[in-house]
Write a structure and sequence with these properties.
Blueprint (H helix, E strand, L loop, with lengths): L2 E6 L4 H4 L13 H15 L7 E4 L3 H14 L6 E2 L16 H8 L1 H9 L36 H21 L4 E5 L1 H12 L17 E5 L5 E6 L12
Parallel strand pairs: 1-4, 2-3, 2-4
Antiparallel strand pairs: 1-5, 5-6
Helix pairs in contact: 2-3, 4-5, 6-7
Length: 238
């Protein structure tokens, strides 16, 4: 039975500043690096061999995975995919969440953050935070780069990639670690846990706490748990 381990990157610089980050390529804080190393320690305690490591194309997920692999002393070449990137927050990108709650109201910000198919206004393509203006994304086809996204948009790109490049490896009983983001992991959990569009709004993904998922031959979840019980969240599945 394969093990799928999902890790939201450790605390990032903009997590600390309470800013909408999305596709802006910020790094980990000191605490985030510690969370990543602890994730590696928790995974090491499972005493399983990891066959594949995946991450998004974003620095905070890449460096989280690097610290995990360093802790595991596993030098395998990771696979990086932009499809695992965080959700694009459009015109909210770079803005402070608390300030926007005061400006737009808590209900509106909650709707932008949690609604299934509502997206913020698009980010201007002239904005320095737009992915078109960030070196990390220069190799992505321009027509694939969003100006804004809903969770539904994020779900579609994440699950298309999961179905084409990851699921077949799990069917071969390979153990996989994916280092990604709050919303790309929520998208995966919606798919794997078969959560409806309302329940997915309730799912919280903590930073730097590996989520272990066991799947049977029909790709059904048979068990799932956070490796760090002290920082676990309700998975809404059982």
């Amino acid at each position: 039975m394969p093990n799928l381990i999902l890790v939201r990157h450790g605390q990032s610089e903009w997590n600390l500043e309470k800013r909408f980050t999305g596709w802006v390529d910020v790094d980990l804080t000191g605490q985030g690096k510690l969370e990543a190393c602890k994730s590696g320690e928790d995974i090491r305690e499972l005493k399983i061999n990891i066959d594949y490591f995946f991450s998004s194309l974003q620095l905070r997920a890449i460096n989280t995975l690097k610290l995990i692999q360093d802790t595991l002393r596993d030098p395998k070449e990771p696979i990086r995919a932009w499809q695992l990137n965080e959700r694009h927050y459009g015109a909210l990108t770079g803005l402070n969440k608390d300030e926007m709650k005061k400006k737009l109201g808590e209900d509106k910000i909650y709707e932008f953050r949690r609604a299934w198919d509502i997206k913020p206004d698009p980010l201007s393509r002239n904005n320095p935070y737009h992915p078109l203006n960030i070196e990390t994304y220069k190799k992505i086809p321009k027509e694939k780069i969003p100006d804004t996204e809903s969770l539904k948009d994020t779900y579609e790109r994440v699950i298309e990639y999961y179905s084409s490049d990851i699921q077949n490896k799990l069917l071969e009983n390979k153990n996989i670690v994916i280092s990604a983001h709050g919303n790309s992991i929520r998208a995966l959990c919606k798919f794997l846990f078969k959560l409806d569009n309302k329940r997915i709004a309730l799912l919280e993904i903590p930073t730097g706490n590996p989520l272990l998922i066991n799947l049977n031959s029909r790709q059904e979840v048979t068990e799932c748990r956070y490796l760090n019980k002290d920082r676990a969240r309700d998975l809404l599945i059982f």
